[in-house]
Amino acid sequence: MDKLKNFIDTHKEAFEDDLPPMGHFGRFDKKLSVSSRKRLKWIQIFTVAVAAAVTLFVFIRIQSDMNVPIQQAKTYTCETQKEIDELKFYYNMQLDEVSAQIRALYKSEQIPGGLELLEETKKILKNSHEFEDAVLPTLPCSDAGLFAMNQHYSNSLECLQIMLSQMGKAIQYNNN
Q: Which of 5, 53, 71, 149 has the most crowded Cβ, counting Cβ within 10 A?
């Protein structure tokens, strides 16, 4: 390798004057674009395969959790029912507190879009009550059920807090 480098260094002028033949760079660009398209295709196939595998895993996991017989779920009721009731009470207090703040801001400040945010707040609260009436009784009384319940209430609470934040920003914008 050193001999080649030395040869190139000593005959530098000879290499600088020669231009590559016509179409030389085009051939390289063509080869590069083909290999990058192949690589992109493999990345897309891999991504779809991973997504399908994860979806299948989640589906199988949910199906196995849903196939718990009702009598077996009732045996767990005594163990986790207190936690479920406490969690439900805690989140309902949090949801009521944030929705009360939203209503108070709406009544005290006339902001553009405030009515729409108030209506969305009502939809979230209605959805939460429907969850308590329809879905919560069917969840398995286990850690998986507690996790699902926690996820639902956390998402609802986060949505309400985002709306409260948006109302606060709108009030600041109107005051400036």
A: 149
DSSP one-letter string for 1-23: -HHHHHHHHHTHHHHHHPPPPTT
Spatial CB neighbours of 102, under 8 Å, sequence gap ≥ 6: 117, 118, 121, 160, 163, 164, 167
Residues 6+ apart with CB under 8 A from 134: none
DSSP letter (8 states) at residue 67: T
In eight-state DSSP terms, residue 75 is: H
Higher pLDDT, 16 or 157: 157
Higher per-residue pLDDT: 47 or 126: 126
Let me know: does 79 contact 145? Beta carbons within 8 Å: no
Cβ atoms of 173 and 124 within 8 Å: the answer is no
| Residue pLDDT, tens place only, 123-140 | 888 888 888 888 888 877
| Alpha-carbon gap, residue 130 to 66, rounded angstroms | 19
The residues near 109 (Cβ < 8 Å, ≥ 6 apart) are 167, 171, 174
Q: Which residues contact 67 (CB under 8 A, 6 or more apart)?
A: none
